[in-house]
Amino acid sequence: MENIPVLRILLDQDQFDELYRELCKFFDAGDHSDLKRLLQGGSIDRKIIFLSNQNRLVEVFRRLKYNGFLFETSTGIRDWLCSSFMYRSKEGDRKLNPHSVWDILSKAKGEPSPKSRICKIGWLQYKTPRT
Question: What distance in Å separates the CA atoms of residue 18 and residue 40, rounded to the nearest whole number?
Fold first, then answer.
């Protein structure tokens, strides 16, 4: 894999640890070190598998962006997510769909329901999208 984008998430150590702990619940233990490397702005040489629907993962990064912890464009976030992650569906492990990722990031279209949201952390509040 070449020219893999990196992402810079601006969190203090406590926030980083909390986000990492919450996200680890959705990855196999063998992927935790690669997940940490990605969240710290590093790169890895393979995609890691998110063990749930893609919209749950993408929506966390949408919240990071609008809460001021992530300063990438929606395009940059989409490219990073699609180059770094796969997700597990009923049909097996699948690549993230760039169009669906874009819709969640930019239009809040296809977001998980409130009870399905992950990383429900006080400093990472959900905001109802403006229509």
Answer: 13
**53-108 pLDDT tens trace:** 999 999 999 999 999 999 999 999 999 999 999 999 999 999 999 999 999 999 88
3-class secondary structure per residue, 36-105 = HHHHCCCCCCCCEEECCCHHHHHHHHHHHHHCCCECCCHHHHHHHHHHHEEEEECCEEEECCHHHHHHHH
Q: Kindly report the CA angle at 119 between 127 and 66, in degrees rounded to 5?
A: 35
Average model confidence (pLDDT) for the chain?
93
